[in-house]
Amino acid sequence: MDGYASLITACSLFVGTHFLMSHPLRSRMVKRFGENGFSGIYSLVSLATFAWMIWTFRQAPTGEDVWVQTDIIWIVSSVLTLLAAIFFLGSLIRNPAFPNPDASASVALAAQSPSGMFLVTRHPMMWGFALWGIGHILVAPRTDNFIFVGSIIFLALVGAWAQERKKIAALGDGWRSWQARTSYWPRLTQMGHIGWRLWLAGIALWLVATWAHNFFGAYGAGLFRWL
Questions:
Q1: CA–CA distance from 129 to each of 32, 84, 133, 180, 181 (Å)?
Q2: Which residues, other chains included, contact 208 with Cβ-Cβ below 8 Å and sequence gap of 6+?
Q3: Rounded-to-integer distance, Cα 166 and Cα 175, Å
Q4: In this structure, are residues 139 and 56 in contact, taking their beta carbons and an 8 Å threshold?
Q5: Which of 185, 180, 167 is nearest to 124 (CA)?
Q6: With contact defined as beta carbons under 8 Å apart, do 79 and 139 qualify?
Q7: Closest CA to 65 of 146, 11, 10
Q8: How far apart are CA 28 and CA 13, in angstroms?
Q9: DSSP letter at 122?
């Protein structure tokens, strides 16, 4: 793994700083810098470490594929990335998990009846990142991708679990009630109830994103593999 040392270091720092600033260091940083100052530092560190991840990923050896990417694998990957786009957009609508200095506003959102993507999971953004990552690993099963994308999947799913401990501490029974009415694991049988507008928006985002792969040398993503 010598050729991947820099990538592993960058990924570890990206994941580690997220967990540190989101949990054990958050209260002390907010007390010292204020909510806006904390948000600024958090964003700066996240962008810097993610940029380093991307740079080391591009410098790392690609290695050989672990398995052959058949059409079936490409179809599964395409479905997963489509779901990821829908999950991500759905997470932006009235999400009680978003950071909010006004706890009462988050409690009010958590008191609502689950709708949209929250019928499927209470962590649609995190699962969107995870599904995106799984889809990309399926069609690029290389060591560098396992490290880079695997870090994002780990951060998304373990971060969602850790977020729940933080929300219980901050919102108490308001979050416990939200947990009781929603699911951590995606209930895909509910996808038919999220609304056609969200489906259309997700499909549009997915089509644009897969088409845009051409600009990065990744030709033939999604439907464009067969067009």
A1: 31, 7, 6, 24, 23
A2: none
A3: 10
A4: no
A5: 185
A6: no
A7: 146
A8: 20
A9: S
Number of residues assigned to the chain: 227
Q: CA 189 to CA 184: how far, in whole Å?
A: 14
Q: What angle do CA 171, 24, 185 make, to 5 degrees?
A: 55
Query: What is the residue-level pLDDT of the chain in tens, covering all 227 positions?
Result: 668 999 999 999 999 999 999 888 888 898 888 888 888 999 999 999 999 999 999 999 988 899 999 999 999 999 999 999 999 999 999 999 887 767 788 888 889 999 999 999 999 999 999 999 999 999 999 999 999 999 999 999 999 998 888 888 888 898 999 999 999 999 999 999 999 999 999 999 999 999 998 887 777 788 888 87
Give strand ranges (E) for 39-154: none
- Report which residue type is found at 73: I
Give the predicted TM-score (pTM) of the model: 0.91
Tokens standing for 44? 């700066």
Q: How many CB atoms lie within 10 A of CB 9?
A: 13
* Residue 135 near residue 80, CB atoms below 8 Å: yes
| Per-domain residue ranges of the chain | 1-61, 65-225
